[in-house]
């Protein structure tokens, strides 16, 4: 199961959307989530079509003035899309065209408001303009500004939130962000414990629990032995993760101690860690090139530590050894 399809299933559940808006979007607190309704819009245009992975919800405002259309765009690229605000402008236009057609709006009618939200889980922090004005080549005092389109979107960059801040939040969206962004094994275990505790307190959300179980399974499958299956039950998964982390630490220490006795403590520990790290990378990504093997063998303990941190969340081998430069 790919990450985008899992996210689509998660945010097709009303509780996830409610947690998302109430926890991270202050402007959405006036919405009435008890009457929210999923919109299965299909957009057709010569050069634009809404991606199947995005999610749209119609949510009434509490004072009854109007319904807001919440457009959640799920962005799973490794880095920011500089032209995202242009895409948002196209998607919102397509949504309004859909509403005009479906509601049979006529002359004199008005359009409902739209709240575009980009949910991004890439490795590098988002640095693209969230307002269209940031892409238009006009000086601030230009008389042409009134004639330019005005579009902006709300950004939720999962990796931009400090881990300790997410840990203080109790919503499912915060737990999801912790699962996605944790860099250390103990952080992953703590996030899984948080998910288990939440669903123990809310047993009525069994369908949502099944989706979260797949998210945890995906996180737990990283770096596992190929012949060891990941359990279906979340509690069993948590036990497996704890056992795996403890096993790796013990193997690392044992290998380091053995090499230390044979070749001198400092050199032996470095070689032992290098060999253990090589095996961990091979289990996850397959056979390594001679160049990668040599880089690991010749690396000092500090470099091995950096690679080990990247390894926890890496999706490709290049994410470990040659990650894209941050912008």
Strand order of the largest sheet: 1-2-3-4-5
Mean pLDDT reading: 80
The N- to C-terminal Cα distance equals 30 Å
* Shape, per Cα inertia axes: globular
Radius of gyration (Å): 24 Å
Helix content: 40-55%
For the biggest sheet, the summary is: 5 strands, mixed
Ranges where pLDDT stays below 50 over 5 or more residues in a row are 223-231
Total of DSSP H or I helical runs spanning 4+ residues: 12
Question: How many domains, as an integer?
Answer: 2
Name the beta content range: 5-15%
In a nutshell, what does this entry contain?
The protein is of the alpha/beta class and 327 residues long. 50% of the residues lie in helices and 9% in strands.
Structure description:
The protein is an alpha/beta fold. The chain has two domains: 3-135 and 146-166; 218-321, no CATH class. The chain contains twelve helices and five strands. The chain has helices spanning 3-10, 14-24, 84-103, 163-168, 172-181, 185-201, 206-220, 234-263, 265-285, 290-298, 301-313, 317-321; strands spanning 37-38, 55-60, 67-75, 114-120, 154-157. It is globular and about 80 Å long.
Topology:
Blueprint: H1 3-10, H2 14-24, E1 37-38, E2 55-60, E3 67-75, H3 84-103, E4 114-120, E5 154-157, H4 163-168, H5 172-181, H6 185-201, H7 206-220, H8 234-263, H9 265-285, H10 290-298, H11 301-313, H12 317-321
Parallel strand pairs: 3-4, 4-5
Antiparallel strand pairs: 1-2, 2-3
Which key features would you list for this structure?
globular, 5 strands, 12 helices, alpha/beta, five-stranded mixed β-sheet, 327 residues, 2 domains, single chain
